[in-house]
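Onboarding guide, step 5: your first structure request.
Type a short instruction followed by the sequence, for example:

Predict the 3D structure of this protein.
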Amino acid sequence: MGKSIAVHSSKGGSGKTSFSINLAFAYASTGKSVCLLDADLKAPSVFNYMFPDSNCWLNDVLDGKCGIMDAIVEVVDDSVAPGKLSVGYCNPDIDAVREISGKDRKWQSKALKIIMGIKNDLFSSGIDVLIIDTGPGVDFTSVNAIAAADYVIMVTRPERSHQKYMEQIIDGIYIPLDKDYGVIMNKCHEKDPISISGMTNSEVPLLASIPCLCDIALRGDSEVLVVTDPENLFSKAVFTVVKNIEECFSISD
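The system replies with structure tokens like these:
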């Protein structure tokens, strides 16, 4: 059976999507068959890196208009060798975003069942690792993705507001849902790991502390660093996270 990982953040601007994409490529480079889903339904951005050639979106799957195997697009190039990578995109059109924003709780409850079905269908098709790029915060669509995942990565920043919301989300969502999780402290001002304190229910597992690297922003949205620059500090952190998560899965198995 495959493993599913939700990549989440307490607030926007944490680098969540960039990390999700690099994580997907890193897993593929280890020989895994990987599927990356853009489930940030109200602010999709995976298409900035790899614009899809598909007539079916994740939105359509959640609305019951098509199946997940109709929506995923395989990345066909040597950058994912020796593994495989497929991507399911969210519709970036503003009208589609407005439509999602108007969905009620009944639709969201139905969407959770569909997400669980998506997960089963992908694993049955041979996917080893499902990575879900969620929306930030505590929107129903984000919580659905977290609920469906086996493991949650919280990508956050060392600013006080980010940490405050991170602590509330961990205590209010991850722990009640009994989720294994770890934190990526991104865009740090120091290379030393950032200590996280003040949690009410548990000690926060820190997967990686990534320094603020200005050159990453200058290199553009279309570059996947684990492919183009595997020796970069950011890339090394991503590969370390893959190792740490796999160790966590081995323990749980």
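Each response can be followed by summary notes, for example: Residues 105-124 form the longest helix (20 residues).
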